[in-house]
Amino acid sequence: MAGTGVFAEILDGDEYKYYSDGEWKKSSSSITVSIINPTTREEQYKVQACTHEELNKVMISAKSVQKSWAKTPLWKRAELLHKAAAILKQHWASIAECLVKEIATPAKDAATEVVRSGDLVSYCAEEGVRILGAGKFLVSDSFPGHERTKYCLTSKIPLGVIFAIPPFNYPVNLAVSKIAPALIAGNSIVLKPRTQGAVSALHMVHCFHLAGFPKGLISCITGRTSRIGDFLIKHRGVNCVSFARGDAFNSNPNEAGLIPLQMDLGGKGACIVLEDADLDLVASNIIKGGFSYCGRRGTAVKVVLIMESIADALVERVKEKVAKLTVGPPENDCDITPVVSESSANFIEDLIIDAREKGATLCQEYRREGNLIWPLLLDNVSQHMRIAWEEPFGPVLSVIRINSVEEGINHCNASNFGLQGCVFTKDVNKAILISDAMETGTVQINSTPACGPDHFPFQGINNSGIGSQGITNSINMMTKVKTTVINLPSPSYTMG
């Protein structure tokens, strides 16, 4: 069971502690925050509500230990990350159990997330050694008008303290995607998991604790994001902010100064289907892209833009596949599991009602039990419906019929989001031209949008984010260039 055995020290009775200075602690606030199981809608876990005083102590410790960590040889940093990855994969079952109970992640997907996270940490260790171990050498006479009187050496050095908030839907994988790059680059990190997903993250952090990192280098604080997040993103001890689903914040991170930002803020993935597309391939990918992980992915397909001439044939194929999706609790490994909260389910229901009242065709009967919403395909969605533009983050997919490629591109580009999109066609020339025209961070050709492999760049435009993620990009973002210039004697200087 989660919280027992090797993880016993992170619990005090039925309360999970927070992690600071290499120790698991109870908050002096004596206040806990409940985590509700999306399936049972009953309290599953309780975590500490850290105080601002405790956060200040965390920041002081993180700043202090980072200086010595930055001097630790790269190979030693990598060695510890490899050790943490091995421990994480060793204890995948306990962490996966938490994902099932607090996020309603299907059991098979929970196991995959933990193992994938271990692989990410190991890859990051190796990639970091390659990136950070290679400096640059420049000579002055490569620029017009200069003699060879200067040698320039550049290297990458850490930023300092990274403050990271992963999203609730992938609380382990998207946490280590911030932790590992920060640590290999020589930074310390303060992690604030979302409340829903906090226990999974605490278990993951304990694996780093067991690996033997210096005390204070990694901290994991818990409590309401609105209270802790708004406090820390303005904290002058923070040198970089990396977070997802950032609409929960009321403060501007750069109120603390000009610091690098890395933000993943959601999407409205558009899928453009041309008349020459392989409809069986499209249907399979629409099901995978729109309904896997219950549609709770920023990269999920959320609107399908289909040429009118093939719309009926494709919709029928998709309806047949929707009917085969299994629905139920995550413990049963169902395809569709409860969404994360009652408020999320209510929001999705409001979008469906709005679409139905405005003329959309419901291809299945709308069904809901608590937080569990049955998969639903909405046909004949129009521009004036909320669901054409808003992100449902659940098992609901919209179909908009179009009469030209330009119409599909225009809809995609009119969205406030621009994370990922996809195009289905057998004409690679058209695919490239459409990709160039779509205002999204990534365009997939003949496949559903997805995050990964984890070393691929991952970024959005418009309201979908700032900065680029992926292992390599994150390492580069969490470092800065340091230059040392060696001044040589003038060319007239003679030796001897």
UniProtKB/TrEMBL annotation:
GO terms for cellular component: cytoplasm. Residues 24-483 form the Aldehyde dehydrogenase domain. It is found in: Cytoplasm. Keywords: Cytoplasm, NADP, Oxidoreductase. GO terms for molecular function: glyceraldehyde-3-phosphate dehydrogenase (NADP+) (non-phosphorylating) activity; lactaldehyde dehydrogenase (NAD+) activity. It is an enzyme of class 1 (oxidoreductase). The keyword Cytoplasm applies. Its main location: cytoplasm. Belongs to the aldehyde dehydrogenase family. This is NADP-dependent glyceraldehyde-3-phosphate dehydrogenase.
